[in-house]
Amino acid sequence: MAAPAEQPRRLAAPRVGVLALQGDVREHAVALHDGGADVVKVRRPSELDDLDGLVIPGGESTAIDKLARAFGMMDPLREKIAQGFPVYGSCAGMILLADRVADPACDGAGRPQQTFGGIDMTVRRNAFGRQVDSFETEVPMPILAGVQGHSSANEPESVRAVFIRAPWVESVGAGVQILASVNEPHHDESATEAEVARIVAVRSGNLLATSFHPEVTGERRIHRLFIQMIRGEA
Questions:
Q1: Is CB count within 10 Å lower at the N or C end of the chain?
Q2: Strand partners for 56
Q3: Which is it for the CA torsion 14, 17, 23, 25, positive or negative?
């Protein structure tokens, strides 16, 4: 009798990289491992080969940009994203997946920071304020209803979100799905609900981005959602 065919890796334990140039790499690696992924740290272009997906962690978007160019990662990763490679970015990772940055940092020669791009959106860096303005809040995120480990099928799905010098999304293109919004905590009392609601999670095809850090609270559903996306289950 012929031996049974080997189960495709993508359906078993997808191999997911964490871009390990700067930021909270370890926390994302733990979250992915808890979600059933085979996790590897990625620093060089050759390490992108044979991956099923990649996470761009929170940290400093300008530092990750500079290091990505220094390590020769910028163009190869841009090309893979353009070909449909699944990527999840949190906080700085969201900025780096944006096609446009409203307030880019500039180097000494006045050149604006670069991004990998891929999501038709405009983001604003440090939009919620400085480090001292960091906050936590419950954010409704209905897409999590279909993710293993959700809290209750009878209540709106939400995630405990941590915002640390976080960006927000100012505008999105027609092909971008808004997954979550949160009210700006320090807003003018005369502003309307629509004026203070800020987009903090989006999806575009195989690309997922959040402005908050699910990896630091023990939240695992965002990473499980990403793994489901890699497998073609979400």
A1: N
A2: 89
A3: positive
Q: How far apart are CA 70 and CA 192, in angstroms?
A: 45
Compute the mean pLDDT over every residue in the chain, rounded to the nearest whole number: 88
- Please tell me whether residue 65 adopts helix, strand or coil conformation: helix
User: Per the residue annotation, which of 27, 215, 219, 223 is the catalytic one?
Assistant: 215
* Tokens linked to 80: 């893979």
223 carries an active-site annotation: no
Q: At residue 187, does pLDDT exceed 90? A: no
How far apart are alpha carbons 199 and 218 in whole angstroms? 22
The catalytically annotated residue of 157, 213, 219, 223 is: 213
Q: Give 218's pLDDT tier (boundaries 50, 70, 90).
A: confident
CB-based contact 2:8 (threshold 8 Å):
no
Per-residue confidence at 2, pLDDT binned at 50, 70, 90?
very low
The sign of the dihedral angle between the CA atoms of 153, 154, 156, 160 is negative
- Which listed residue (91, 157, 219, 223) is catalytic? 91
**pTM higher than 0.85:** yes
All residues at 6 or more sequence positions from 170 whose CB lies less than 8 Å from its CB, including other chains: 102, 121, 122, 123, 124, 199
For residues 79 and 135, which has the higher predicted lDDT (pLDDT)? 79
Please indicate whether residue 91 is annotated as part of the active site: yes
